[in-house]
Design goal:
alpha/beta, Aconitase, domain 3, Aconitase, domain 4, 3 domains, 25 strands, elongated
């Protein structure tokens, strides 16, 4: 009995004995990778279990989710991986390299018929070259690193035939979106799908990568495309050593499906669900705020070249942000050398590091509440790229929409037949003025227990660290107060409303961040007393009606928990023993702003 392609690959990597569906076999992995996302946990698992690395030459880290390390946790994870790599002689494809699965092909680490495992859920992108790739969890990857093999249950195979001839404007992304419309999120669940048909077989490597990268969104173990001669030649040119494998003519498939692509037009996924697919024409005219072209799905040179031809000589729509992210450094360098970046920059785009782009929100930035994004990625789950709404489409549709400021096809843009701009969701809000209550006079004397911070030059990063700067809700700020100040990181848990903070010289030096003032308001701290304040910090506090007072109390024997009474008008600070320390009273401006409730208050 003949074998399917996945059965042949797994047979050759598990002892050359023919395998059949549902067999559980130990599969030798030609390439074992871990990303910055998950890599640190792989390291921890290995260290905790006292395990080493079976074959360092086949093992690597890829920093592609957040190449910039802009998030502190990603930066810490990357550093933990670098340390482990130095200890074990492992290759690190660092922040300048790009997406791991693409690098495996580009660097000749794997060829048709090979096997790869990674912490990347889209490791099955290797199906684009007729190889077996799997995304797995941290424990699985750690085991593969330590033993070189990992157990796997042989999946049942299905054949998916793309039938018909699509329209000339159809791209590889449109083909796979058409398949998503047929299969939904689970129509290929647990299957290894072999993709055939003239529309698929005619795709170049970039197009095959786009199609294979979205098998996960249909529930497939992998979508395998038998390698063409062009793919074989490219893989050999990259230095891969392999023998291409193909299904036997008499192979047995669980099912055969057809995807009708006759006359297929550009397609798009609506926000929240990759499988919620419709024609671009059905949503044409929807306003767009940002566009991302890149990711493992559409970040190849051919994708960016097609996008560049659409925006060449044009400008991005006013107020719209276009972000370009090549898949790998080689693609990035080629775009630079061949002038594509100049085209994008002239149009008003942002060029990012090679990497995962919008799919990993930390790399190229998130979208905000109410923002509508059109992305070439493979996922648009709610919250994955921020708090906005994300459509998925081809690089061509994305580029045209960036210029038009609305969803449209490249053909619509070229023909000058743009759809009517649709109204934004939500409509107009009621802007009728709201009657304001007359504020009661605020107290000019406060009494409270003190917290004595015996330090000078407490800067704004110590008060409210920059990793929390995206917080704008006052209620959320308090918990981070003094979160970066040694000895005081638990302050927010101990502080109570009415407490008073006493400290030394130059309190609040550093950045202009308002949160370093407002975090005390959030906690209900009634007053901050310092010998002196940073100039910007002082203005921020006064303007936001947060009481601060200049006085030198660190030279006294004041202790944590002591109760003091402070008069803002006179600057007098009365201690429990009856002694009085003279501070600087509120100026008339400070008093006026304080009583109004802030500089912007009426």
């Amino acid at each position: 009995m003949g074998q399917t392609l996945v059965e042949k690959i797994l047979s050759t990597h598990s002892g050359n004995e023919p395998v059949k569906p549902d067999d559980i076999v130990d599969v030798f992995m030609d390439v074992r990778a871990a990303r910055d996302f998950g890599g640190a946990n792989v390291v921890k698992n290995l260290r905790d279990a006292g395990l080493g690395v079976a074959d360092p030459k086949r093992t690597a880290f890829t920093f592609d989710c957040n190449p910039t390390g802009s998030d502190q946790k990603y930066a810490a994870n990357q550093q933990a991986c670098r340390v482990f790599a130095r200890e074990h002689g492992l290759k690190v494809y660092d922040i300048d390299a790009g997406i791991g699965t693409h690098l495996a092909i580009e660097k000749g680490l794997i060829g048709p018929g090979g096997t790869l495992v990674s912490t990347d859920s889209h490791a099955n992108i290797l199906g684009a070259i007729g190889a077996f790739g799997q995304g797995m969890g941290d424990v699985d990857i750690a085991a593969a690193w330590a033993r070189g093999k990992i157990w796997f249950q042989v999946p049942h195979s299905v054949k998916v035939v793309f039938k018909g001839k699509p329209s000339p404007s159809t791209t590889a992304k449109d083909l796979v979106l058409a398949a998503l419309k047929v299969f939904g999120a689970n129509g290929l669940l647990g299957y290894s799908a072999e993709l055939t048909g003239e529309a698929i077989e005619g795709l170049d490597l970039a197009g095959r990568i786009t199609v294979a990268s979205m098998g996960t969104e249909m529930g497939a173990i992998i979508c395998l495309i038998p390698p063409s001669q062009q793919v074989i030649d490219e893989c050999r040119a990259a230095g891969a050593q392999f023998t291409p494998l193909y299904a036997d003519p008499d192979a047995t498939y669980a099912r055969t499906f057809e995807v009708d692509v006759e006359g297929l037009q550009p397609m798009i996924s609506r926000p929240g669900h990759p499988e919620d697919v419709t024609g671009v024409k059905d949503v044409a005219g929807m306003p767009v705020d940002s566009v991302i072209i890149g990711s493992c799905t559409n970040g190849r040179y051919e994708d960016l070249q097609a996008a560049a031809e659409i925006v060449r000589g044009r400008k991005v729509s006013p107020g719209l942000v276009l972000k370009i992210v090549p898949a790998t450094d080689a693609v990035w360098q080629r775009c630079l050398a061949e002038g594509l970046f100049k085209v994008f920059k002239d149009a008003g785009a942002l060029i990012g590091n090679a990497g995962c782009a919008g799919c990993a929100a930390g790399q190229i930035g998130q979208n905000g509440p109410g923002e509508v994004t059109l992305s070439t990625g493979n996922r648009n789950f709610e919250g994955k790229q921020g708090q906005g709404k994300v459509y998925l489409a081809s690089a061509e549709t994305a580029a045209a929409s960036a210029v038009a400021g609305m969803i449209c096809t490249a053909e619509m843009l070229r023909a000058g037949m743009l759809p009517t701009l649709r109204p934004r969701a939500g409509g107009k809000k009621d802007t009728a003025p709201v009657a304001k209550k007359v504020a009661e006079p605020r107290p000019t004397k406060v009494k409270g227990r003190v917290w004595v911070v015996r330090k000078d030059n407490v800067d704004t990063d110590m008060i409210f660290h920059n990793k929390h700067l995206a917080i704008t809700d006052l209620k959320e700020m308090g918990q981070h107060t003094f979160g970066n100040l040694d000895g005081w990181k638990d302050f927010a848990k101990k502080a109570q409303p009415g407490d008073i903070v006493v400290t030394g010289k130059n309190f609040g030096c550093g950045s202009s961040r308002q949160q370093a003032v407002d975090c005390f308001k959030s906690l209900g701290v009634s007053l901050v007393i310092a010998e002196s304040f940073g100039a910007i910090y002082e203005r921020n506090a006064i303007n936001n009606a947060v009481p601060i007072l200049n006085a030198d109390l660190l030279q006294t024997n004041l202790k944590d928990g002591e109760e003091i009474e402070v008069d803002f008008a006179t600057g007098e600070i009365r201690r429990a023993d009856g002694s009085v320390v003279k501070g600087k009273p509120f100026s008339q401006v400070q008093s006026d702003i304080y009583q109004r409730g802030g500089l912007l208050a009426a």
